[in-house]
Amino acid sequence: MAADFPLKPAYQSDLSISHRSLGEIYGITGRFDKAEAAYNRSLTIAAKLACEDQHIAEYQRALAGYHNAMALLHHDKGALGKAETAYKASLTTWKKLADKHPEVPIYQQNLALSHNNLALLYNGEGQFKKAEAAHQMSLDILIKLANRHPNVPEYQENLANSHNSLGNVFSDTRRYDKAEAAYNRALTIQDKLSARHPEVPKYQETLAGIQNNLGNLCRRTGQFDEAEEAHQASLSIRKKLADQHPDVPEYQRWQYNAASNFVWMVARYPGRSEKDYAEALRLAEMCVEQRPKESDSWQVLGWARYRNGQWQPAIDALETSIELQKNKGDAWQWIFLSMAHWQLGNQAEAHKWYVKSIARRTKSKNEEWLRFLAEADELLGMPVVVGHTDVVESVVFLPDGAGPIVGQQRQDDQAVGRRRPKVPGHTHRAHRQGRVDCRLARRQDARRRRRRDQAVGSRHATGGDVSADHKQPRRGESQ
Q: How far apart, in whole angstroms, are the C-alpha atoms of residue 107 and residue 280?
């Protein structure tokens, strides 16, 4: 019909919509080249209509939406330069509409979401200043919009998500006070919204995601009780959603992430109640049942089994976790392997995994890692090490497996076959700090620490990370 009636704008507009719809199907099914071709045909028609009839806002709005769809496609393909160009084109069009029609709230909303999409692109590229500026622009618009229309739930959720996303940028750049304030603002808004609309699952999930991010932040800053409380709240919401909607894969995935985070929090040190450890084991087994091919599932199961006194099953789970990582493994697996082997009396194996773990994280200042290391030190009877710059290479274990001796003291002590004496007045904290100080002094070319301790995206607890799985999603235009 568009070919038969080329002067009928309505037919051209319908044709543009059809091309876009086809492009969306191609994109969903992974046929990106065909999707891009369809979007380009759609954009060509829409751009012509918008140019010829600039007074018709609907054509401008359609053009902005097509640019955003193309940007999302490029973003998914990893063509970030093209994605940025398309996001900016969409943003420019929405800004013109918002400036020309300030009384139309949907134009303001889509302008804010365009800033958000661009910010997420920048954040993913590590351009944090640009990401912060774009998120702040989005936030400024949404604050005004939510204040003018307090009874529109969608605007409140957009505002909560905007605070949450800005909190992620602050967390990624180690401005923890600002991150905590942003997360708490998001939490306050979303908590009220989900309470008013308990029938809307996405409001509950957004609340769980913000709780998860707050928990990650508290864990990262050493507020472990607060972190556990936030992760428990997230887990409770996600478990309820998964039970109520067993046919929604996303809710099952979020429950998995929340469960693995909770297991991590419970397993971080000994002394918890048997009830806590039993619950951690139940959740870890659920993780394995849901994702038996993922290393993270078996890793948290190994931790939970260890805390429940199941030494050999813990070893089996941790070894499976390492195998699923193509036998690479990490220090967080190895330190638990060391302790589990020691509990079984396998002292040589315990020492092997202990040395391997401290060699991997020589320069780490991660507080949770130091807790685990201190626990292993105490269990294995590791000595105080002070003022030596070559710890790992110089560790030698005595024939009876009693413990290591180090450096010059190693030569003297091994000559007479005895262990180093304990230092009078030695405290557990001093013991740990002595070992850490000397490790920090050596191996200047040790591998660079991860840019951040908390994971971004879909990483789980491997390497001491937990899921930061609820960044604000990229958005298409609101209808």
A: 47
Q: Is residue 368 part of a domain?
A: yes
Q: Are residues 335 and 439 in the same domain?
A: yes
Which of 45, 74, 100 corresponds to the end of one domain?
Answer: 100
Stretch (H or E) spanning 396: strand 396-397
Instruction: Report the sign of the C-alpha dihedral through residues 40, 42, 46, 48, in that order.
Output: positive
Q: DSSP 3-state helix, strand, coil percentages of the chain (rounded to 5)?
A: 70, 0, 30
The answer to whether the beta carbons of residues 181 and 166 sit under 8 Å apart is no
Burial pattern 167-188, b for ≥16 Cβ within 10 A else e, equals bbbbbbbebbebbbebbebbbe
Helix axes 201-220, 224-244, angle to 10 degrees: 160
Give how many domains the chain has, as a whole number.
3
Question: Are residues 293 and 343 located together in one domain of the fold?
Answer: no
Tokens 């890692």, residue located: 369
Rounded average pLDDT per 10-residue block, the chain, 479 residues: 50 78 82 84 81 76 86 88 93 92 93 94 93 96 95 95 96 95 97 94 94 91 88 92 90 88 82 90 93 93 95 96 86 93 94 89 75 88 45 40 35 32 31 32 31 29 37 51
Residues 308 and 334 placed together within one structural domain of the fold? no
| CA–CA dist 330, 462 (Å, integer) | 8
**DSSP helix/strand/coil, 397:** strand
Cβ atoms 327, 381 nearer than 8 A: no
The strand ranges marked E within 91-135 are none
The answer to whether residues 302 and 337 belong to one domain is no
What's the token pair of residue 77? 């393909």
The dihedral through the CA atoms of 341, 346, 350, 352 has a sign that is negative
Q: Could you read off the pLDDT of 433-463 as tens digits, one per residue?
A: 333 333 333 332 333 333 323 322 322 222 3
Q: What is the DSSP letter of 462?
A: G
Q: Determine the structural domain holding residue 375 and report its residue range.
A: 330-443
Q: Which two tokens stand for residue 433?
A: 């700090």
Domain boundary among 288, 313, 338: 313
- The dihedral through the CA atoms of 94, 99, 100, 106 has a sign that is positive
Q: Let me know if residue 467 belongs to a domain.
A: no
AA letter at 430: A
